[in-house]
């Protein structure tokens, strides 16, 4: 994959090359930083060009509306609202659930805690309370939620108001929360009078990996956000779902945040195509396992992936990312680990080539710890 927009292969040739047997050219970088680096498929571009559109701020855009209704149905929600980004979907939900003087619980390393500039606190007004992963990587238990949700009633104390879950959990390595686990944690929060928001940026990955419909993973959540631009591969777009009253308020909040778009159907059309192809995520998961196995065989300390995220424990994160980049493999960093992600524009031949290239780096050559604070490649 070329880095420069101008010299990218056309989407058609890129897609055709996916299944081809030929090797990846040596000078073509393999971009495993994130599943957000995919470019729209020819089918998406065609749907975008032909989309039926209208002004979504004045009336409603019919294609965005179709997308919203479809996602609401998939998530088992009454209604849904398209947003340009997952960050906006989350802040809209948090603004609707929280006010000043309240706190919210979220598993440590959650996107809403660490990667949204603290907007949960300064924009939604809720004080974050991170919970340890006592239920396994990326997961909290119902008993921990019950303990943390106690409102002591003292006038100077924060009032716990919300539990914010994340499935799959990005910084824990794309870890899955199963339906029973999710339902029991959500029920504990509700019993303690907390609202429940589910950050499901990669809920599709969890659903495909488990072989369950996405709606099986949203039980007990008041609001759910999902991304179309991660593994599903749409160029732009997220959706936040909930009750009809929530979505009515969410539309006002989206406008307030500057997220009311006009003929957004040109973007929504790609989202609809992306949803048609959700089952394809199983390929990403299988390739992540291949990648992890190959790395382990080459001596790297690898977390076994549950979905499309492979985390490596390395002594020198900055140095290792630089060494990978020199070898032609682009990696990211999250929670002190090196992160590699499989995605739609990565085929088996890319994983094979990436393993060969990383094999030349070798785990021992990057073992020196320390170095100055790093400017890590961004992750999403
Ligand atoms: C990517 C991501 C988001 C939101 O991402 P945007 O880049 O704003 O679309 C939210 N939550 C999680 C867990 C994510 O990985």
Q: Could you explain how this protein is built, in words?
A:
This protein is α/β, with parallel strands linked by helices and 380 residues long. Helices cover 38% and strands 16% of the residues. The chain has two domains: 15-37 and 279-358, Aspartate Aminotransferase, domain 1 (Alpha-Beta Complex), CATH 3.90.1150.10; 42-276, Aspartate Aminotransferase, domain 2. It has helices at residues 11-19, 42-49, 62-75, 86-97, 111-114, 119-122, 142-148, 179-191, 203-210, 244-256, 265-276, 281-297, 317-327, 348-361, and strands spanning 30-31, 79-83, 102-107, 126-131, 159-166, 195-200, 223-227, 238-242, 301-302, 309-313, 329-330, 332-334, 337-341. The strands form three sheets. It has a seven-stranded mixed beta sheet with strand order 2-8-7-6-5-3-4, with helices on both faces. Strand 5, helix 8 and strand 6 (195-200) form a beta-alpha-beta unit. The radius of gyration is 21 Å and the shape is globular. The structure holds pyridoxal-5'-phosphate. Residues 85-87, 90, 111, 166, 170, 199, 201, 227, 229-230, 238, 380 line the site of pyridoxal-5'-phosphate (PLP). Residues 1-37, 359-380 are annotated as: Disordered. Residues 19-34 have a biased composition (Basic and acidic residues). Its cofactor is pyridoxal 5'-phosphate.
């Amino acid at each position: 994959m070329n880095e420069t927009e101008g010299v990218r292969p056309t989407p058609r040739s890129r897609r055709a090359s996916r299944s081809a047997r030929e090797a990846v050219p040596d000078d073509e970088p393999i971009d495993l930083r994130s599943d957000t680096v995919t470019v729209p498929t020819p089918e998406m571009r065609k749907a975008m060009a032909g989309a039926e559109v209208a002004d979504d701020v004045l009336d409603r855009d019919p294609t965005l509306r179709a997308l919203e209704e479809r996602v609401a149905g998939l998530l088992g929600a009454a209604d849904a609202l398209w947003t340009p980004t997952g960050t906006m979907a989350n802040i809209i939900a948090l603004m609707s659930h929280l006010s000043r003087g309240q706190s919210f619980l979220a598993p440590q390393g959650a996107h809403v805690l660490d990667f949204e500039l603290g907007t949960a606190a300064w924009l939604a007004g809720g004080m974050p309370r991170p919970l340890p992963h006592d239920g396994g990587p990326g997961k909290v238990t119902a008993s921990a939620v019950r303990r943390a949700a106690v409102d002591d009633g003292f006038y100077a104390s924060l009032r716990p108001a919300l539990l914010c879950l994340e499935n799959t959990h990005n910084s824990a390595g794309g870890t899955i929360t199963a339906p029973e686990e999710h339902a029991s944690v959500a029920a504990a929060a509700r019993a303690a009078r907390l609202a429940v928001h589910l950050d499901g940026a990669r809920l599709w990955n969890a659903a495909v990996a488990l072989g369950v419909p996405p709606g099986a993973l949203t039980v007990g959540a008041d609001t759910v956000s999902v991304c179309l631009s991660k593994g599903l591969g749409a160029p732009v777009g997220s959706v936040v779902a909930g009750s009809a009253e929530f979505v009515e308020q969410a539309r006002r909040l989206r406008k307030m945040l500057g997220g009311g778009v006009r003929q957004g159907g040109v973007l929504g059309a790609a989202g609809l195509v992306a949803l048609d192809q959700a089952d394809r995520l199983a390929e990403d998961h299988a390739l992540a396992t291949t990648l992890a196995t190959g790395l382990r065989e080459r001596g790297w300390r690898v977390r076994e992936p549950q979905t499309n995220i492979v985390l490596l424990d390395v002594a020198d994160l900055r140095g290792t990312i630089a060494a990978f980049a020199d070898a032609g493999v682009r990696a990211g960093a999250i929670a002190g680990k090196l992160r590699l992600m499989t995605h739609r524009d990565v085929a088996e031949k890319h994983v094979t080539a990436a393993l060969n290239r990383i094999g030349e780096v070798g785990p021992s050559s990057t073992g020196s710890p320390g170095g100055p604070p790093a400017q890590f490649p961004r992750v999403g």
